[in-house]
Please model this.
Amino acid sequence: MRERHASHGARRAREFEAFVAGAAGRLLHAATLLTAEPPAGNPCARRLLALSLARTYADWDRLHGEDPYDRARQYLAARFARAAWHRYGGGLGRVRRSPAGPLGGLTPRERLIVVLRLHEGVAEVQAAALLGMPVERVRTICDRATATLLHPPPGPSRAAAGAKAAPP
Model:
């Protein structure tokens, strides 16, 4: 009995290691986009990834044919949303950070939806279900965030640069 249990544990560990070898890079990139950290220094993204992978490993035997990447991505999104909720006083959509990463000018909720929809290719219906929001709200937030990324509002650095470039 012990031998069978040990072999099951070894097989489980090998399967999970193979999954991590194939998926960790993309999941880390998604986590880095979510946290708006620069890719070279992303301790929050790495912690977010580690916690999501640990949860995925804990549930590995219960996946029963589900895509482990989808499950890990769900854990990543949920963990980020929970952390942002606590960090920003209960409001995922209230705080804009200074642009550290490519999505740094977006609110945490906007980053989460943009990463799920545009980077990960999750359908609106699935993103809405994952976030507990109406599909129309997900669509509106994604459209607004995309417009912000394409046409960022002038910030202090742009205004200062414009003032310096203007002739006296």
